[in-house]
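Reviewer 2 asked us to include a model.

Predict the structure of this chain.
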Amino acid sequence: MPTITLTRKESQTNPKIPIEAEIISPDVFLNKSKEQIAELIIWRGNRQLPLNDLFTLDLDNDLNCKIDDLKIILEGDLANIKRIGQGITGGEILINSSIGMHVGFQMKGGKITVNGDADDFAGANMEGGEIIINGNAGHYLGGSIRGDWRGMSGGKIRVEGNVGNETGVWMRNGIIEIGGNAPMFLGMHMHRGLIIIDGNVEERAGAEMTGGVIIIKGILHKLLPSFEFKKKTNSIKLEEYGEIKGNYLELAGDFAERKQGLLYLDESKNSFHFKD
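Predicted model (structure tokens):
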């Protein structure tokens, strides 16, 4: 696989000034030479800089290949770098660091792996592909950017750790898996798609959802009163995911809306919601 490695240079510049680097993408790097990639422009605050001002570049092969064969590896301190992998259609990006906001924004294909934490809006407005975050994720994971009412519409996101508020907000399709916990508004305004969380959720899960499925394997500390208990089940069959076995409580909601989605709660951890 043709691979290009970008290693962040040590810098004494203010780390609070974000760097906009949507050009770090297999779509942009494809069929370019090392010299051409080094001269690509990124923004640091209100200043334009060539890519090689911030990174050293190392190519192990020619990048004249199919996009799905191209791999980008990012090393160093990348926590203030935004928009990595924006709109990519194929290839692979491996990030060996925590990463800034909007990683995988509007992603359409390919794969992004973050070996660290991801800031807010990871996978926002995503249409396809796969994002794996081996740390925690910030707010609005797989959701919509400010002013938009269309969140993630395809693809898959897996977060091994915790997530922030409004994960999956305005979600229209796709899959989000969460290994840790979530605070408020998980799946808010959800239309379609699937969210599975292994950990606990604070409150307001599924607020104003009109479709889709949320499965909470931990504790939902506070259940919205606009959800209605339907039945108990030991098998959740999902066309896009397969079968999930276990003892679950099936609820429909949000009945504050004209249409409803489904919320499944682990029975052993959430029966307290229905005790007198």
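The first strand starts at residue 3 and ends at 8. The chain is about 5% helix and 35% strand. We have added this to the supplementary material.
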